[in-house]
């Protein structure tokens, strides 16, 4: 119904604990694929398992960063995920959450006379939804393109703002409890480039030229969409796109090639000025008839 009303982004904070990739996750993947709506889901407050449909490949799942202490006072970073913020998923599914936002002791209006405070991923997810709405206003071309939206949302995250303690990397720049890091809306005031495409067979490759000056750091983010209706199990085949950066000398400079993540990230500092090439390549296609839509974005960090 919301899709019929022209809604472009949905914030969703309900959910259930379910084993593996549930029918709930699968249905939301179908919804995103068929409508082009960006679906943002709270990770859940189990302190363990991400609640469905937060395990859906096509949603942006959001964790809760503890940016305030128990006395409701702001603390300095780097920030840790709140102890209740969910982060676990089966090892054959994409890393969740992808992004985090403040969700601890958030001020809320209780009624016309009182304010209250709340903690949970349901407070963090709307922050990301608001940032995404601003992104769509700034770059209307991404409306209806959840791949590019996810790519940009991850691109605008600050990985240095989150604590590494008990929070290992489970992919290139994706940490177990906090994903790509704390989303930063202010990054949208700077320049960024975004492109979308589709892969239909193994071995395909799309190339994008990036001009860099010596000492500049570029962040490149690839996000792919699950466009088939297959369920995901440990034994099932999954679509898999890889991201590679070739240096000005024609040699591979960096790569991100997780077999399970729907997001790949490269950060690279150019040693010399020149033309660098970001390449999206197909490692595996589960369903050649559906193809694999993707969005890629990049921006200069310094």
Describe this structure in words.
- The chain has a four-stranded parallel β-sheet with strand order 1-2-3-4. A four-stranded antiparallel β-sheet has the order 9-16-11-14. Strands 10-15-12-13 form a four-stranded antiparallel β-sheet, with no helix packed on it.
- It is an alpha+beta fold.
- The chain starts with 8 loop residues before the first strand and ends with a strand.
- The mean pLDDT is 92.
- It is built from three helices and 16 strands.
- The protein folds into two domains: 9-189, Rossmann fold, CATH 3.40.50; 193-300, Jelly Rolls, CATH 2.60.120.
Q: What features would you highlight for this structure?
A:
302 residues, alpha+beta, Rossmann fold, Jelly Rolls, 2 domains, four-stranded antiparallel β-sheet
Break the fold down into its secondary structure elements and pairings.
Layout (H helix, E strand, L loop, with lengths): L8 E4 L10 H13 L2 E5 L17 E6 L33 E4 L3 E4 L5 E4 L2 H18 L7 H10 L1 E2 L23 E2 L9 E7 L5 E8 L4 E8 L15 E7 L5 E5 L6 E7 L4 E11 L7 E9 L2
Parallel strand pairs: 1-2, 2-3, 3-4
Antiparallel strand pairs: 5-6, 7-8, 9-16, 10-15, 11-14, 11-16, 12-13, 12-15
